[in-house]
Here is the input.
Amino acid sequence: MDFIDWCDQVFSQIVDLSRTSPEVIRRQGWLSEFLLAEHVFGASVSNHAQYFGNERRQGLMDALDALKSCGLVGVKKSGQMIELISGRRGREQSTDLTELWESVCSRSIDDEQAAILRIVNRHSVLVGGDYVSLGEVGYETLLLESGFEYDLLLLLVENLRTQLLLDLRKYSGKKFIVKASYFGLVWETRRGLTIESRFIDSLIQEWETTSVDFKRELRLDTADQKAEFVKDVLGLSNTQASGRRWLIVGFDDKTHAYYGPPDSGVERNRIEQILARYTTPCIDVRYEVVEYRSSGEVGKLEMIRDPRKLPYSVMDSIGDKKRIARGQVFVRHGSQTEEPTQAELQAILEEGNRARSN
Here is the structure.
């Protein structure tokens, strides 16, 4: 669990309490910090004195401060009481924080700033048994690990602070300390997730085309399953269309909604073995499983089309009800995979000949 996961866990408990105890919240206007701690930590929070004197409380306070900084909740401290008011953003994004993360990850910083941010985040994040807190990092550590001169270091830190990617706390003279921020940790740890989610969303908007195919599931156990898969990959690889070619696994064919994670037994090595056995020339592919928003994992298969190898065809017959035969060539007609017309096949042959002659 990292700090962003920790904040998400605390936020989920706040949302849950606001839904299960709305009358209490409306009447009193606040939640007891200890009540929230009981929901977050469970029965292991045995008494007030013990809780308020240990590091768990610091972890909870850091999470609340982080959630407040990005407008997900409002927090007002009064003794040992905290007022928790889910803001508009909190209500709208209580189930999916990707939109917020996208706005953070779109912030542009240079390599030197990114280097400082990584050092701060690495030293600031303190993982406990069932919580995560944020500690302070002195400028001496940044100087030592970055190798930057003091003036450049301070400039980089100031720039990161203005983008809310870290917290800067100055002392007298040249001394200062910094602390990781929610935004800075999102920028470093969630950029891949948000970029992948945005990319997949763009594919979903157009749905199935001559270069993109969606599958609810991908199974490669039976001969028919292998035959259907080989046919789909051949169709995407042969079709004359611009751009990259994708087979995305994990979305319902009818609703276009997220369905579920891909079969864990389908790995890149298995895919490559099947294509090496049943396609000629062998089709090169890249396969990876990526996170999609807060929904879950998605399978992403890219076909690497090499014009010099065209046309790609079936090397060996396979299948029963969905049998494909040796020598067959397939292309995409819109969202359908079919054998090419004579004109299409001739165009593919000519493309391959031109590529091989260059």
Remarks:
- The chain has a mean pLDDT of 87.
- The chain has three domains: 3-92, 107-189, 195-357.
- Residues 3-20 form the longest helix (18 residues).
